[in-house]
Write a structure and sequence with these properties.
mainly alpha
Length: about 170
């Protein structure tokens, strides 16, 4: 009886959730782009690498550093969702015979596809994500340290140094 109710609720609510989320995400992205273009000029958008950082520097002033933090938290949330979704795909693949049958087994107490979750989490994806994140953070610091303003300013204050006068930065 409970399973029948759950299936009917999913059949009714899932299409609603899909349409609401599609519309909501479209509206939020459209409003974000409108905000970007009302604050940052077209030339800066086309020439700059991080529009959100330019936007936050103009709007938030000294608190501009919040934008990269929120972007990284959003990325972390996306990766978290992908990990859960992929574990579910492994579970269904095991149930349908496309993957090893052990992935379709359910944990007794929690009624979750524990082998699929463990298989996904223990795989290389978290390692690849961590290495990729470190690469994306460290590479710009090495490749063009002058353009990474926030880190440069932080290090200048930390080491109490200033740029040498009369020299062009390359």
């Amino acid at each position: 009886m409970i399973r029948h109710f759950y299936v009917n609720a999913c059949i009714l609510n899932l299409p609603k959730a899909i349409w609401i989320s599609i519309i909501l995400v479209t509206v939020i992205y459209t409003l974000a782009n409108i905000a970007y273009f009302t604050t940052v000029s077209r030339e800066e958008v086309l020439g700059g690498a991080a529009v959100a950082v330019m936007f936050s520097k103009r709007l938030y002033g000294i608190m501009w550093w919040l934008m990269p933090i929120f972007v990284s938290l959003s990325t972390f949330g996306g990766v978290n969702g992908i990990l859960f979704t992929t574990a579910r795909l492994f579970y269904v693949g095991g149930r349908e015979g496309h993957m090893p049958k052990v992935l379709s087994m359910i944990q007794i107490k929690r009624l979750t596809p524990m082998p699929a979750v463990v298989f996904m989490v223990r795989l290389i994806w978290p390692i690849i994500y961590t290495i990729g994140t470190i690469f994306l953070v460290i590479l710009p610091l090495y490749a063009s340290p002058v353009e990474t303003d926030g880190v440069t300013l932080f290090l200048q204050k930390l080491f109490e140094v200033i740029p040498e006068e009369g020299k062009k930065s390359e």
